[in-house]
Amino acid sequence: MGVNGASGTGPGDPFTTTTAVAVVDADGLITYWSQGAQDLLGYSTADVVRHPAWALLRDRDQGAVVSRLRRTERAGNAVLTFRHRAGHTVRLAVRVCPLLAADGRRDWLVLGAHVPAGAPPTSADATGGDATGTTTAGTAPSSATPADTTTAGAGRTDITTAGTTPTDTTPTGTGAGRTSPVVTRYARRRLVSGQPQVTVAHAPPRRGRPGRGGREHSRPRTFFPLHDGAGRTLGICYAARNVSVQDPTRERLVLLNAASEHIGTTLDLDRTVQEFAEVAVPQLADFVAIDLLDVATTGKGPPTRPAGGPPALRRAAHLSIRPDLPKVIAEAGEPIRYPAGSLQNRCLATGQPSREALGPGTPWLPDDPVRWTGINRFGVHTHLVLPLRARGLTMGVVTLLRWENPDPFTEDDQLLIEDLVARAAVCVDNARRFAREHQAALTLQTSLLPPNLPSHNAVEVAHRYLPADAESGVGGDWFDVIPLSGARVALVVGDVIGHGLHAAASMGRLRAAVQTLADLDQSPDELLAHLNDLVMRLSDEAEAAAEGPAAAGATCVYAIYDPIARTMVVARAGHPSPAIAHLTEPVEFPDIPAGPPLGLGGLPFESAEIPLEKGTVIALYSDGLIQASDQDVDVGIERLCFALAHPDRPLEEMCDTMVRALLSDRPRDDVAFLIVRTRALSPDRVASWDVPADPSAVRVVRDDVSDRLSQWGLEELAFTTELIVSELVTNAIRHARGPIKLRLIHESTLICEVSDGGHTSPHLRRAGSTDEGGRGLFLVAQLAQRWGTRYTSSGKTIWTEQPLPGNIQAKRPIHTGINQTYRSPGGEARC
Predict the structure, then answer these.
(1) pLDDT (tens digit, 9 = 90+) per residue, 140-184?
(2) What is the dihedral of CA 667, 671, 677, 681, to 10 degrees?
(3) Is residue 135 within 8 Å of residue 101, measured between CB atoms?
(4) DSSP string across 351-416
């Protein structure tokens, strides 16, 4: 809303010293009265607010002037006579500007000043003058700020200004009345910060306008927010004035100042080069193109020029005063090549700027018919090419063209543009370095977290990871799904205190430790105890090295689900309890003993066993999920229960519901959660036997195993499985105590488990050529894909896994040292 009347101002313009500001609503009532108005006319705010504005005029006939303003949509100027509170009259020059609200109501902004000598009579045209009306977004204010000339709405992303001069709109030919990107950017900044700002913009000579004499202008611009009586921001007021500039040094400083404020507002590479283009066009050139070396746009390393052949350039940005020019040039992001003798290649090779006139005699143009066609079409007469160079690195070239401006680039122009390009190059290099570091951080995070969770017959899995530091994309939370022996699976969610790279590095160490400890088949409470010792040791080492704690603290929940027993054993270290969504019961948060956070020591950790039915949904999550909202944690728990309702839904849909219901756009803490749906292994896929402690029982067990493999259609595995069973059962009978049990599990692999009451750990060793024994476990290790030992409260279990037929990989022959060869699987054994 408002007016831009700067184009008609001059030395005799009374509004250069505006002192009175008032706002009149659509009914003619005064709604705002400034201190300057009170000083001019003597009336206080209480005297005039909500009273008719025409009552202040000396002659009521002058109310016709107000009526004319109310009937027109334009702003205007007039000289009116007012009654002072003391009784005498005061003649004021008045400028009236329409304030158009979103609901169509029209208020008026009134600016007043003393009339200078030789002012027009009272009957001056109230709709004349050089001021032009504009539109507004948002709500018309109940109170205004002095010197409103152009206002942008507070509730919109696009900021429009009508009645502005070409300096503050898009270049000629691109459509009048559209605010320039520079003005829009400043207005948005002030809208966010709520603070006023004064800038100076440089304007080139306006061609084709009589009376201007080809003078260049500077444009002082003021941006400040508009507030209503309650202090709410209604919009941004933008005031501008043209001032003739004749000092080239001052013009240069003005342009450099504008460039320093406009270029480099973000660390986005594409945005940075576009900002430079917006400064260069149309103030310095009619067209500008920024081409970067290919490696500079990928962020893989410092840009270097190839040893041979033309450099690989990619168009980063371009801007022209002609909207149809991009039709004959490369679009942003496309690769671009210049002829061998072009200024661009010469500039990259020498690192020096070059300028030349373009015409039929240009030697390299005939080798580039596309550019030759475009240059002839638009009448380009000169161009300037400069290297985009910062910190000793050449990142690309900048090309500027002129055709609408009849003057070729001069040496002074080149010096000014070199300064601008140097400033822009630093910003581009900063953005390039940030992009590289950001990519490195993402690579680190990707390497630390599982890229794809393994599929498992025991559970169906879905997950989400949302770091608080959205810019770097890294955080300290982690999750994992770890296959265990006996068709079981471990579920892990952890949270390292802190954010960013430091927390991510600590998280990676802890995740690796959890995987190693899980491979030892430790119970959840034992695993957390060992993990706590590791965190304490890492913190002590980092403090001793004066680097700060590598892992100042962490929380973790670790669960093991058994699809055969249909139970889950859980332990937690300062972490929220898992949520369990049963098929027929409400969501449950089981009472699991809360151990201390990792790194504190003290109390021991305890496990709890929870029976689960097939199809139950389990949610493990970090505390950032339930603490993300501004409400109490109990509110987060209620929302989580809502998201987990109806556990028969797809897990991905449930994850999306959790994100929408519990998380804001920018969570304050890292968030990671894991949702699993339990499965159960069919009883006919499991076979078990009690084995008496008698060597003769080995043959009987071997025959039973062979029969069961035949029932499962796994005859191909009979030979190797019989060898494994014979070795493990014989070792249990000879070296352990009862009870001895054998179990076969037909899952994604064939699992063989032999349990006994002993706690001694078996060791794999290589027997000598003259030893009569000691080869049992060595054979088992060669015949099985994996093997290991896990301990229980009643003893230990030795297990092996063999791939099913169709997934078998050939194993190399085994040489034991006594001319024995075993071929696995299914091959014959020869002695």
Answers:
(1) 333 333 333 444 333 333 333 333 333 443 333 333 345 567 777
(2) 170
(3) no
(4) ---EEEE-STT-TTGGG-HHHHHHHHHHT--EEEEEEEEETTEEEEEEEEEESSS-SPP-HHHHHH
Selection from 782, 759, 468 nearest residue 628 by Cα = 468
Query: What does the DSSP 8-state code read for residue 73?
Result: S
Could you tell me what percentage of the chain is helix, strand and coil, using 3-state DSSP and rounding each to the nearest 5? Answer: 30, 30, 40
φ/ψ (deg, to 5) at 491: -120, 130
CA distance 261 to 38: 38
The DSSP letter of residue 110 is: E
Cβ contact 287:327 at 8 Å? no
Q: Is the pLDDT of residue 741 over 70?
A: yes
pLDDT grade for 778, boundaries at 50, 70 and 90: confident
Residue by residue, DSSP assigns 811-828 as ---EE-SSS-EE-TTTPP
Q: Are strands 795-803 and 786-792 parallel, antiparallel or unpaired?
A: antiparallel
Q: By the 8 A CB rule, do 92 and 34 touch?
A: no
Instruction: Count other C-beta atoms under 10 Å from residue 322's C-beta.
Output: 17
> Any residues with CB less than 8 A from the CB of 20 and at least 6 apart, and which?
34, 36, 37, 39, 40, 41, 92, 110, 111, 112, 113
d(CA 537, CA 393) in angstroms, rounded, equals 44
User: For a pLDDT cut of 70, what percent of the chain falls above it?
Assistant: 69
Average pLDDT over residues 281-289: 88
Decide if 636 contacts 560 (C-beta within 8 A).
Answer: no
Which strands, in side-by-side order, build the sheet including 671-678?
459-466, 671-678, 617-621, 579-581
pLDDT digits (tens, 9 = 90+) for 415-456: 888 989 988 889 888 888 887 777 777 666 666 677 677 778
CA dist., res. 534 & res. 507, Å (int): 12
Of residues 251, 279, 263, 285, the one with CA closest to residue 385: 285
DSSP 428-486: HHHHHHHHHHHHHHHHHHHHHS-SSPPP-SSEEEEEEEE-SBTTTTB-SEEEEEEE-ST
Task: Give the Cα separation of 749 and 689 in Å (integer).
Answer: 19
The dihedrals phi and psi of 450, each to the nearest 5 degrees, come to -65, 125
Instruction: With both helix axes pointing from N to C terminus, report the angle between 269-280 and 411-448 in degrees, rounded to the nearest 10.
Output: 170
- Residues contacting 341, CB < 8 A, separation 6+: 363, 364, 367
- Residues above pLDDT 90, as percent of the chain: 21
Q: What is the pLDDT of residue 173?
A: 36
In the block, tokens 């000629």 appear at: 172
Q: What is the amino acid identity at position 566?
A: R
Quote the pLDDT of residue 221: 79
CB 14 within 8 A of CB 86: no
User: Is 743 in a helix, a strand, or coil?
Assistant: strand
* Phi and psi, residue 651, nearest 5°: -65, -40
Token pair of 559 as six digits: 């669960």
- Contact in structure between 551 and 538 (CB atoms under 8 Å): yes
Cβ(388)–Cβ(364) below 8 Å? no
Q: Which residue has the higher pLDDT, 77 or 148?
A: 77
φ, ψ at 668 (rounded to 5°) = -80, -20
- Per DSSP, the residues of 180-230 read PHHHHHHHHHHHHH---EEEEEEE---TT-TTSTT-EEEEEEEEEEEE-TT
Q: What is the pLDDT of residues 361-400, one digit of tens each?
A: 566 666 666 666 667 677 788 889 999 988 888 889 999 9
- Residues 6 or more apart from 527 whose CB is under 8 A from it? 514, 517, 518, 558, 571
Secondary element (H or E) of residue 153? strand 150-153
Report pTM.
0.56
Nearest to 319 by CA among 412, 209, 400, 202: 400
Q: What does the alpha-carbon distance between residue 52 and residue 60 come to, in Å, rounded to a whole number?
A: 12
